[in-house]
Amino acid sequence: MELIKQKQINPRKMWPNEAQDFTPWLAENIVELGEKIGMELEVVGQEVSVGPYSADVLAKDIDTDAYVVIENQLEKTNHDHLGKSITYASALNAKTIVWIATDFTEEHKKALDWLNDNTNEDLAFWGIQLELWQISDDKASMRLNIVSRPSTNVKTIKSKTSTESESRNLQLEFWTKFRDKLQSTKKIPSLQTPQPYNWYDVRIGRSNIFLNNVCNTQKNFVGVRLYIRSSVVDLYYPALEAKKDEINKALGCEPIWDANPNARDKTIAINYQTDLTDPERMEEALDWMVRQTIIFHSVFSKEVKGIN
Q1: Pair (117, 170) in one structural domain
Q2: In the predicted model, what is the mean pLDDT of residues 155-159?
Q3: What angle do CA 275, 279, 282 make, to 5 degrees?
Q4: Which CATH number does the domain housing residue 92 bear?
Q5: Distances from the Cα of 197 to the Cαs of 122, 172, 176, 263, 294, in angstroms?
Q6: Is the pLDDT at 280 greater than 60, yes or no?
Q7: Is a pLDDT exceeding 50 seen at residue 167?
Q8: Burial of 66 (0-12, 13-18, 19+ CB in 10 A)
Q9: This prediction's pTM
Q10: Residue 190: what pLDDT?
Q11: Where do the DSSP E strands lie in 3-108?
Q12: What residues make up the domain containing 195?
């Protein structure tokens, strides 16, 4: 193995013009940004008009259909871009702001941290520092460093009853441990940031079909399930159901197919009864979920790729 000395360079060497070069490049490579912040993003538009101004990139979180405003700045952060980001988000009813810059002042980092700590849990503010490192005369590598992220544990407690807060905190604890355990196996390359919800999604390589794992603190069970959204259900579900016996054999179990026939969205799921308030039982449930997630991911990622 040969060590290569890298030199940090100005990103404008690769993208001379922010609007004409970097924004289109980012739109085409939105997956890289999504993986960094734990979201599957789909570009809605570039230079989207907001009154006399325009948002650099408007994307959508495929999990929630909520808008994400992305503001680019190939220079040190300034008040102008922070104000525009908030204006764009309010006008477009976005739930997430991603501010990308080559250098964040301490004041702007604190401003994002303050917004994350003092807004409701539906809103998220990300500060991403962009770096470009030269590897050779004609090759460079990009780094996206998170300088500010949503403070989930603080927002969980806000505007909740004590029972709701306990439940949310338990879910956040469960998903954080789940993500760490699953990440340590190195079986699945990209995992989303844990949130205090009763679900945690894992991508399988296709839009609108994914693993939607469940942590039900009220009924004390966890589950692994393939979730097929209504927009693609006519394509995927019949094709998978036609191979039901073969898929069940590959999974090594008999999951529940289409648990709610009246729903337009379809699921293929297995559940595990536990006691999430018991640390030992929680660990057992986590180990079970990690094993089953790896199996479901392996089987269904292969199956869906063959469906066109």
Answers
A1: no
A2: 44
A3: 50
A4: 3.40.1350.10
A5: 12, 7, 11, 21, 21
A6: yes
A7: yes
A8: middle
A9: 0.55
A10: 81
A11: 7-9, 41-50, 53-61, 67-76, 94-103
A12: 155-305
